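I had to read the description of the data format several times before I understood it. For illustration, here is how one protein appears when written out as sequence plus structure tokens:
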Amino acid sequence: MRVSSDKLVEYAMKGEEAAAGEAHPDNVAASLLGGFTITASLSPLRVRRLKTNLEVNLMLFIPQGYRIEGKTRLARSMLPSHVPLSSVVRNESRLSALLAGLIEGDRELFSAGLGDDIVETARLPLFPYFPR
């Protein structure tokens, strides 16, 4: 029996909820499907892996000896409950550029889409090395 991507992500979200206190599809969808994924809908759950025309290599830095217990729960608790419209507009503009860059294979457009005024800014105290 074949299980759909949506169902796989839904099951994985239950594990995310047990581990981090809340069920979010973002990390589990990317982990299960690979590549660049989007959540098109939460109810019903619809996740998709985008076909892209841009190969992107990612680099991950993990500072030695830097560990935070309950990091995911703490990071989620730091998010603001109210966000200025100007920050939302900037983030949506960047997201549009990022997606267009991936789809069109335009590295410059993709790069213009990097950055976040909401989540990254709120979580800066957790990652003191991030700005450097």
Summary: Residues 65 and 105 are 37 Å apart (CA to CA).
